[in-house]
Design a protein that fits this description.
The chain is an alpha+beta fold. Helices cover 63% and strands 11% of the residues. The protein has helices at residues 2-25, 34-45, 50-69, 71-91, 101-121, 129-139, 145-164, 167-189, 204-215, 245-255; strands spanning 194-200, 220-225, 232-241, 260-266. The protein has a 4-stranded antiparallel beta sheet with strand order 2-3-1-4, covered by helices on one side. The longest helix is centred in the first third of the chain and has 24 residues, at 2-25. The mean pLDDT is 85.
Length: 277
């Protein structure tokens, strides 16, 4: 069932990504970077479907990635690229939703980021700059994946401005890329979005008891010592979801108005009431 769910996410993600490129971005000569952006430029000069170009551009990187990382890693990515290319070819030149560059960049960015995010959740990628980044990171450990993707996207946007002789195209493409990256973050991290909270108080036990009773969240007590006062006490550490944060602050406020509370963002939380993946 887990494998079936993953492939459903891959297919849905590829459909959204293809819709973004073929219906919103390509007709307006916009891009969210990556191989889809490069394919848009090639399509401008050659009468070849964008989906076909995307598959062709990815082939050499798929083969080399299989050599470096093994067949298991690349299998889902290969399937995703083929489905993405097929959907792109089917949707290209069918209809255009809007010719407004701002609307196209916003809608295209949201759909693109959502599609890529769904692929990442299913342990797959749509190829392109993600594959290039992973290969680069294999040889140059100090170069982060995100850095490579950003550099590649900047190059693509530069090419867009040069080829289409229109600065507006490049600027609106930057908007599309920004929105796409935010959508990816929401899809991949937003599902497990949580807050890690440290509470320093003289009423540790009372606060911990109420958190367990009312919020049904686990509490960890950390031994601490004030550097200046040398007073020893226990610090409450707990993780709550975004909907429980206001309740937690209210609990602390009602018990100890002098409590010192530190709230950090927890990018991903696994187990005990959160994601099990």
């Amino acid at each position: 069932m887990k494998t079936l769910k993953d492939y459903i996410l891959i297919i849905l993600g590829d459909l959204l990504l293809a819709t973004s490129v073929s219906i919103f971005l390509l007709p307006n000569q916009l891009s969210t970077g990556g191989f889809s952006g490069l394919a848009t430029i090639i399509n401008y000069f050659l009468d070849i479907k964008v989906g076909t170009i995307i598959i062709g551009l990815n082939i050499i990187f798929i083969i080399y990635s299989a050599y470096l990382f093994g067949f298991k890693f690349i299998f889902r990515t290969t399937i995703s690229i083929l489905i993405y290319g097929l959907f792109s070819n089917l949707l290209q030149d069918k209809f255009v939703v809007t010719n407004d560059l701002l609307l196209a960049s916003v809608c295209g960015g949201i759909l693109s980021g959502t599609g890529i995010g769904l692929n990442l959740i299913a342990n797959s990628t749509t190829g392109g700059s993600e594959l290039i980044a992973k290969i680069s990171n294999h040889y140059f450990k100090k170069v982060g994946l995100t850095e490579v993707i950003v550099i590649f996207d900047i190059i693509i946007i530069g090419l867009f401005i040069f080829v289409f002789k229109n600065i507006d195209v490049g600027l609106y493409s930057i908007i599309a890329i920004f929105i796409s990256k935010k959508a990816i973050d929401i899809i991949v991290e937003g599902i497990n979005y949580a807050k890690a909270v440290y509470i320093i108080s003289n009423k540790t036990n009372e606060i911990a008891d109420i958190i367990i009773q009312k919020l049904s969240r686990g509490v960890t007590l950390l031994n601490s010592e004030g550097y200046y006062t040398k007073n020893k006490k226990q610090v409450i550490y707990c993780v709550v979801n975004k909907y429980q944060l206001s309740d937690l602050k209210e609990i602390v406020k009602n018990i100890d108005t002098n409590a010192f509370v530190i709230i950090n963002e927890a990018k991903e939380v696994l187990g005990n009431g959160f994601s099990k993946n």
